[in-house]
Write a structure and sequence with these properties.
Layout: E1 5-9, H1 15-25, H2 31-42, E2 47-54, E3 57-69, E4 73-83, H3 92-106, E5 111-114, H4 121-129
Parallel strand pairs: 4-5
Antiparallel strand pairs: 1-2, 2-3, 3-4
Helix pairs in contact: 1-2
Length: about 140
């Protein structure tokens, strides 16, 4: 990291910056599909979108959902964690999560939870190194 980064909450006004990063994580989705999903996500009252800016440019982002679970109480469930591919492995992910965890505590969350793809071994190592543990399996049935 060369410059100071700024943590921010993103809004629908930031779609033009969000979509190129989102395409790095979801290359099979078109810009139109991503924009539609973003409109839907921002329509939920428990949805938040966080970003890191460096020199005014969006370099990382994550979605977040406030939920309540029996096993954890109020939590922030993060997803769509993206650090620009050009600058990965330079500490930006750690900084992003430090800010996200601070935000979660300030909003009375008792935990931060996430899912990651099985084949994304780099992310598994990252999350373990940053205090996350595996609690179970995530199942999905597409309809």
């Amino acid at each position: 990291m060369k410059n100071k980064v700024e943590f921010c909450e993103l809004s629908q006004d930031d779609f033009a910056e969000i979509i190129p990063l989102a395409q790095q994580l979801n290359p099979k989705l078109s810009e139109v599909e991503l924009k539609d999903f973003l409109f839907q996500m921002f329509g939920f009252s428990n949805y938040y979108c966080f970003g890191l800016r460096e020199n005014g440019s969006l370099i990382a982002l994550s979605s977040g959902w406030i939920t309540v679970r029996f096993y954890s109480g109020k939590q922030l469930e993060v997803d769509n964690v993206i650090v620009d591919q050009k600058i990965q492995s330079n500490g930006y992910g750690k900084v992003l999560f430090q800010h996200i965890e601070k935000w979660a505590k300030e909003n009375q969350c008792k935990s931060v939870e996430l899912n990651t793809y099985l084949e994304n071994r780099r992310s598994h190592k990252f999350y373990h190194q940053n205090g996350f543990s595996i609690l179970g399996f995530h199942f999905c049935k597409f309809l």
